[in-house]
Specification:
Layout: H1 3-7, H2 19-26, E1 31-35, E2 41-42, E3 57-61, E4 65-72, H3 80-83, E5 90-95, E6 102-105, E7 128-136, E8 139-146
Antiparallel strand pairs: 1-2, 1-3, 4-5, 4-7, 5-6, 7-8
Bound molecules: zinc ion.
The site of zinc ion has 8 residues, from loops.
């Protein structure tokens, strides 16, 4: 492993079920898998609907709005790339369309801004957020900005 590998932030490794999520993210779209028969949204992506057991699915576009459901401010020891960005945050966002679906991400000050760009003291449970997308290691990941900074 090179020094560059040690300095990298971890990026997602898409699998077959989740690949569409990342393909839509690369287009700047937040889409969640839905059952094509009963219409229930489900996350994380998987082959079968837990409600009606159908294998038919579609990817429904979300508004990208949500609320901070929880958050943490990680403390050392951290991986080197994360230690360099501390203090930063990891937030859990409940989606406006489906509050029981929660995505883990980071609150940042703008689309290309670093993990530590949003002041930790500004984060509040329940704060309204909007998705943005940032490229890391060739994968576009959803991040979040405050609706009213
Ligand atoms: Zn279903």
């Amino acid at each position: 492993m090179s020094d560059d590998d040690h300095a990298a932030l971890l990026s997602p490794v898409p699998d077959d079920d989740g690949a569409p999520f990342w393909q839509y993210a690369a287009r700047g779209e937040l889409r969640i898998q839905a059952c094509a028969d009963c219409g229930e949204l489900r996350f994380p992506p998987r082959p079968c609907c837990p409600h009606c057991h159908s294998f038919a699915s579609e990817w429904r576009r979300m508004s990208g709005r949500g609320r901070v459901w929880s958050y943490v401010v990680p403390h050392p020891p951290l991986l080197p790339a994360y230690a360099a960005q501390a203090p930063y945050n990891a937030i859990v966002v409940e989606l406006a369309e489906a509050p029981r679906i929660r995505l883990v991400g980071n609150l940042v000050s703008g689309p290309g801004a670093p993990l530590n760009s949003a002041p930790v003291e500004r984060i509040r449970i329940g704060a309204r957020v909007q998705v943005v997308f940032a490229e890391t290691d060739g994968v576009c990941v959803p991040r979040w900005i405050l609706d009213r900074p």
